[in-house]
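G., the chain you wanted modeled:
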Amino acid sequence: MIEDWASGIFTSTGAGLGAGLAQVRQLGATTVHLHAPHRDQRTPENAQRLAQEVAASGIAITVVFVGFEDDDYTTVERVEESVGLVPQHTREERVRQTLEIADFAHALGVAAIGMHLGALPGSPQAAQFLPIVKATRAVCDHCARNNQSFHLETGQETAAELLSFLQAVDRPNLAVNFDPANMILYGAGDPLEAMGLLGPYIRSVHCKDARYDREPGQPWYEDAPLGQGDVDIEAFLRCLHALGYTGALTIEREYSPDQTGDIEAALNLLRDLRGKILGTGS
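Predicted structure as C-alpha cells:
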C-alpha cells in the first residue's frame, strides 16, 4: 500500500522524458508517473518485463502518461495546433493509440492514465467542443472497462474552462492531474484559485514550479527548481491537504542542467513540508 503523499518522480523508459528508473532508485522515491514508451515497445512482453523491474525496485507506477511523437511544445501556438486529442486531423488515430496505452497500463497493473488533452475550446458552443467531448468519453469508457481512471493535466486552459469540459464529458472516472506550474507557464490563471474549482476532480499532481517573469531568450515552457518559482509550494500542499488528497506527490523536472540535483532538492523540500503539514517526516 502506498503511503499518504508518497514521494514520486516523473519518469521514462525510452521516450526521453523525465528521470530514468535508475535515477528514481538512486534518489529513493517510491512512486513514479511513467511516460508511456514508444509504440513498438508497448508489447505484452515488455509490459511484463517492466512490471517485474519496477516491482523489484520497490517502485509503484501510479499513472501512465500518454504522449505522441509529433506533439510540438516549441511555442504555445504549436501546442494548440499539435498536442493531444484536440487537433482534428490526428484525433482518430490518437484515440486509438490512447486506448492501446490504457491497455498497456492495465497490463502493468496501473489504474490510471493521464495526458495533456490539448488546448480545449473556450466555449461549449465552439464547433470542436462536442467532438472532443465524444473522443474523451470514448477513452473514459474504455478505461472504465479496465477499472482505470483518465486524468487530464491542467494548464492549457483556465480552470473554469476545464471544469466546464469535465462536466460536459460527465464520466465518473474522468479526473484531473493538477500541475500548478503549467497554470503559470500557459497564463491560465492562479494555481491556488484553480484548485478551488477543480478540487473534487484532483486525483494526481505534478509538483513543479515556474516563474511568471521570463529571462531573455528563455523558452516559454522552461520550469524552475521546486520552491524557487512563483508557485507557493507550501500553500499548494496545504490546499491538497484541505481537499483530502492523499495520493503521491510526483516531481516533474525536465529542463535542467542538473536534473538529479534539482530532483533531490525537491524530494528534501517535500519531505520537510510533509512533516510540517502532516506531522511526519516519512
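The longest strand covers residues 7-12.

Shout if anything looks off.
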